Amino acid sequence: MIVGVPKEIKNNEYRVGLTPPSVRELTSRRHRVLVQKNAGLDIGLPDEQYVAAGATIVDTAQEIFGKADMIVKVKEPQPGECAMLNQGQILYTYLHLAPDPEQTAALVRSGAVCIAYETITGAGGGLPLLAPMSEVAGRMAIQAGAAHLEKSKGGMGLLLGGVPGVAAGHIVIIGAGVVGTNALQMAVGTGARVTVLDKNMDRLRHLDLIFGNRISTQYSNAHAIEEAVLSADLVIGGVLLPGAAAPKLVTRAMIARMKQGAVVVDVAIDQGGCFETSRATTHADPTFILDGVVHYCVANMPGAVARTSTFALNNATIGHAVALAEKGWQQAMRDDPHLRNGLNVCQGKLTYQAVAEALDYAYVPAESMLG
After folding, report:
1. Looking at residue 38, which CATH number applies to its domain?
2. 194 with 202: CB under 8 angstroms?
3. How many CB atoms within 10 Å of residue 312?
4. How far, in Å, CA of 349 to CA of 52, rounded?
5. Which stretches does DSSP call E strand in 28-187?
6. What gap in Å lies between CA 193 and CA 145, rounded to an integer?
7. Which of 31, 270, 320, 336 is catalytic?
8. How far apart are CA 80 and CA 287, in angstroms?
9. Is residue 208 annotated as part of the catalytic site, yes or no?
């Protein structure tokens, strides 16, 4: 199989779909890998390393899309990339389709076989290809929130940990999954007062055993969220419904009543966001202020630490990439129901139920596309 790796073109996105060690995993099995010139240069992966791993360097994305049987990326294809996809070509990347009707329509028109990292499941449960980026984003959320609480960045001028004689700040984390747990680890380290909310009582018990009186756990409902948000200096939104649009748990009315200069970080923005006031931002222009509250809603947060993120992501994605190259997508999905759960769009059909329902498409089960 010919595998293509284009350079990412989303704003301030420096991650790359395959690292040189991942390329070697494919070329050692006699697959051909095409890598766009300088695709990994910004994170210390020059073309020479790719050539040493057996890749062929090409100048343009057009050549990658024109020749490859499978495209391996990081972020969802931008409109120009969607236009270059071919009938039956495999696209293996993050997609986050539920809040993105334009991208979904473009992928349907392309006739490509579109596999989303974020809906591939794991044998032990969870979403193993989403988890490493959720870990990065959760940890970054506290860093970003702390920075934007500074007065020069629009915040109230608060040091989260306080100092002797001055009260620490209050961090509220909504959702105790991978994002929330990693945010929690960083939040406790700041010395702030920390509250975490979730509907999973077993998860809250587990966190209570680990962190004890350093955190406060609360069952998540509308009343508890409102109380916590109104007392917070920093709110982290880390709620996920696999493949579906994120629920709007923090309303516009709640935001309007928050402290002036408070900060909200919406890690769920890839899936539409869990704050009613959220809209996607970029690393070049990461925040906006609404009702006096600083909103940080960068849709590719891990791209800011692109080298760490690229290697973490490749650890999770390369196994399925090898299976797809070795077996073809249909046989690979027959053999692995977890990979099959990643099939979102296939040859003009919506094959992931949550996306089909969110965007009002007819749902076609992935199994029916496997011949």
Report:
1. 3.40.50.720
2. no
3. 18
4. 39
5. 32-36, 56-58, 70-72, 90-93, 113-116, 170-174
6. 14
7. 270
8. 26
9. no
Tokens, residue 35: 């890598």
Beta-bridge partner residues of 26: none
- pTM for the full model? 0.89
Active site residue 270: yes
- Judge whether 321 is annotated as a binding position: no
Q: Is position 193 annotated in a ligand binding site?
A: no
Paired strand residues for 350 = 345, 363
Whether 312 has a binding-site annotation, put simply, is: no
Type of residue numbered 321: A
Q: Are 146 and 160 in contact (CB under 8 A)?
A: yes
Domain boundary, last residue among 299, 331, 359? 299
Q: Which two tokens stand for residue 318?
A: 């390369």
**239 among the known binding-site residues?**
yes
The answer, yes or no, to whether residue 124 has pLDDT greater than 90, is no
The Cα 271–Cα 95 span in angstroms is 10
225 is known to lie in a ligand binding site: no
Q: Do residues 103 and 85 lie in contact, with contact meaning Cβ atoms separated by under 8 Å? A: no
| Whole-number pLDDT of residue 185 | 97
- Residues 96, 179: one domain? no
On whether 196 is known to bind a ligand per the annotation, the reply is: no
pLDDT in tens, 10-36: 989 999 999 999 999 999 999 999 999
Six-digit token string for 16? 């790359």
Q: Is the separation of the CB atoms in 148 and 172 below 8 Å?
A: no
Q: Which two tokens stand for residue 273?
A: 């966001």
Domain's final residue, options 259, 276, 299? 299
Q: In the predicted model, what is the mean pLDDT of the chain?
A: 97
Per the CB < 8 A criterion, the answer to whether 207 and 176 are in contact is: yes
CA distance 11 to 271: 18
Is the torsion defined by CA of 235, 143, 195, 177 positive or negative? positive
Q: Is residue 197, in this structure, part of any structural domain at all?
A: yes
Residue owning tokens 């974020």: 118
Instruction: Determine how many CB atoms are found less than 10 A away from the CB of residue 228.
Output: 23
Please tell me whether residues 186 and 264 are part of one structural domain: yes
Q: Which position among 31, 96, 170, 320 bears the catalytic label?
A: 96
pLDDT tens-place string over residues 288-305: 999 999 999 999 999 999
